[in-house]
Design goal:
heterodimer; A: about 260 residues; mainly alpha; 8 helices; 2 strands; about 75% helix; B: about 60 residues; 2 helices; about 0% strand; rod-shaped
Chain lengths: ~260, ~60
């Protein structure tokens, strides 16, 4: 990628965040965060799973199947949060042409696809005993399926445009256009008739008892911590991949008598 | 183990499926990271470094 140096580029706001997000600086500070984040993830999953199976009652309507919600809701939350993060990163790519925004988008796409797949799979298995069907072409489920397909499309685009700056900007535009689907997923249960439950968080408080909300909240935080751990490692991997690609290109150019360079 | 009732198969399948995907994701992430580190180490062994890199910060990464 022919990117300008974010440390010297005057189009970037010269603040601590820009310095922190410089690929070299990012590599050095992020390595200290991986182990604590991974440990936090393991602790949260241990507590969350214990609550999910041994310290929460069956629901008065759904019975024991309420336990599926403790993995379905966190993965559905991540499917939307990750896309929102990618959309924000896409703005970073298009406005500031920041290499770390590219890395963030690229590393997040397969993670988003995986968590969306988990949300769809667990949702289907929840739907069968609760609604009597694995699948219904209603607003929430269809828009989530569209989200999954968009993630797959973006992963394919990243592989197609590997290491091409122009390709990165095209992917960023596609990502931003796809972000229109996020409010559709969120508000689909309010806009259209659906089998799917409405949001559990309402203006007048939560629509569930604390005994069910507690494991749900812990699992949401556990899934989120898992995502940030994997995303951090993924971004570091993308920096290393970019460096290795640049080094190989430079080496080949040097052998052929032309010049080239690396930026991160 | 607690009694998961008549829909146990749906509950267990959900958790197993999610665990499989998450484990695959962790493995894939770790493997990709390892592959790029190895790639850079091989380049370094061949004497190909980044221009800005010194011996000290190479060791750090």
């Amino acid at each position: 990628m022919n990117k300008s140096n974010p440390m010297t580029d005057t189009s970037l706001p010269a603040n601590w965040f820009s310095r922190l997000a410089h690929p070299g600086v990012f590599l050095s500070w992020s390595r200290n965060w991986i182990a604590p984040l991974a440990a936090l993830t393991i602790i949260l999953f241990t507590i969350g799973l214990w609550y999910s199976f041994f310290n929460s009652p069956p629901d008065y309507q759904m019975g024991e199947t309420v336990r599926i919600m403790y993995i379905h809701v966190p993965s559905a939350w991540l499917s939307q949060m990750i896309y929102t993060l990618m959309a924000v990163s896409a703005i970073g790519t298009l406005v500031w042409r920041h290499p770390m925004a590219d890395m963030s988008m690229k590393a997040a796409a397969p993670l988003g696809a995986a968590f969306t797949a988990v949300a769809l799979f667990t949702g289907a298995l929840w739907g069968r005993p609760t609604w009597g069907t694995f699948w219904e072409w209603d607003g929430r489920m269809t828009s989530t399926l569209v989200l999954f397909l968009m993630y797959l499309g973006l992963v394919a685009l990243w592989r197609t445009f590997e290491g091409q700056a122009r390709g990165t900007r095209i992917i960023a535009i596609f990502t931003l256009v796809g972000a229109l689907n996020i409010p559709i997923i969120k508000f689909s249960v309010d806009w259209w008739n659906t089998l799917h439950q409405p949001s559990i968080i309402k203006a007048d408080g939560l629509s569930m008892p604390a005994s069910i909300y507690t494991p749900l909240l812990i699992m949401v935080v556990a899934f989120t911590a898992l995502f940030f751990t994997l995303h951090l490692v993924g971004m570091r991997t993308e920096i290393l991949r970019h460096r290795a690609n640049s080094l190989e290109r430079r080496h080949v150019s040097a052998r052929n008598g032309t010049s080239s360079g690396t930026t991160s | 183990m607690i009694d998961l009732g008549p829909h146990a198969v749906f509950i267990v399948s959900s958790y197993l499926g999610a665990a499989l995907v998450i484990l695959a994701l962790i493995l894939w992430t770790a493997l990709s990271s390892h592959q790029q580190k190895r790639r850079l180490a091989e380049l370094e062994k061949r004497g190909i470094y980044r221009r800005s890199e010194t011996t000290s910060n190479r060791k750090e990464e």
